[in-house]
């Protein structure tokens, strides 16, 4: 603005300057003889023209300056408005997000409350007949349900008071140190085993001596009147052993939530001595087990190792002996944690070698991933080797007059089982990029088609029995024993049209030597060697979790 005012002042002084110049020119003219009127008029017009031009240009510049200042003011207002709009939009978005979050939390809370109420309202002693025929097949094994949210299991403790949501009797049994009642309670509530298992660590905390309670529950694990071979056929004994393992696991979870001093007082020297005595009593019985017969799913070996890990007495036993037991529990989901607790992690390469040498490549792959040893044991190579061995014809010759195709049928069945196990292992460990499953699935379809074709051909070639004529002796008199004829045809109709399935009693198939591991999947049909075990309403299925 100061520059503008100085320019305007100079322009206003132009007239006075011209007048001064005129006086000077008049004086100059008086000293000359020749007049200069014509020249002065030209000069005066020139200067007036310059004055007008400068004033006009100055006016234009002032107008442009005012216009520019107006635009600046308008731009500032637009920016302020936009900034205010952005701030208001952010506030609205945050409010909407908070409302959605609150609504989601409320919905989750309501759903959890409804789920808890429904579990509490369900009778503990409901029989499979009331729930429907399929309910007894839905029960999961005691070692199948994962123990998750260990910290959440300990949250119900407030001022030393335990709040058990659905099973207050569980706390009562632990407070009374009733190990037999605890076994019966778990058996009666096996249909809700997931909820019961989550609450056991909390209930054990209320016991006068939780460690002694768990040790008391181990009574009857090896009944004197039952041999090891017969134990595999006793459904009740299998259920009791799984319950013992579960209780020891729950005690381990409880110990992880306690302070070091509390753990030392709970697992005292006397408790360790008692646990050691039980382990020394069990250990000789493990020598009678066959590592191949158990197929990596031995409850006896698992219980022994869990006993050592829970009560911290593994240092009292030879590490080499413990190392030899790992292949007997390689399919158990707790194997990796047990090995770490027992300090056997460094021995896992040797365990994997043993599994591979015994044809249990799937277990080897699972342990290789669990202990991050895939750089030493290539999963793809192990799986391919497993399939190659499965495709080989068994060397032992079938006894009796078995048809020549029997051996080949067994090989095809073995290949089917191996292919399905490999595909499940690939999917579990996300190895599709390294080992595509499409060729394997095509091979499965081919073998299943061949199996179906052979079955149809066998049924067609099988001779049909002729129906005998009743009481036909030449051209004799017509038979009069109509009742016997009716009974005969009734029996034939019964064979052709079996009794309605719901009229039959519940079937409990006999025990198998092995249980189906989770990594073999549930969507495929396995041969009897990999069958499930049903007994007394339990559905046991061994699992392997990584």
Automatic annotation (TrEMBL):
Keywords: Coiled coil, Developmental protein, Differentiation, Flowering. Residues 11-71 form a coiled coil. The keyword Phosphoprotein does not apply. The keyword Transcription regulation does not apply. Residues 450-475 are annotated as: Disordered. One of its GO terms (biological process) is flower development. Residues 450-459 have a biased composition (Basic and acidic residues). It comes from the Eukaryota. It holds the Pfam family Frigida. Belongs to the Frigida family. This is FRIGIDA-like protein.
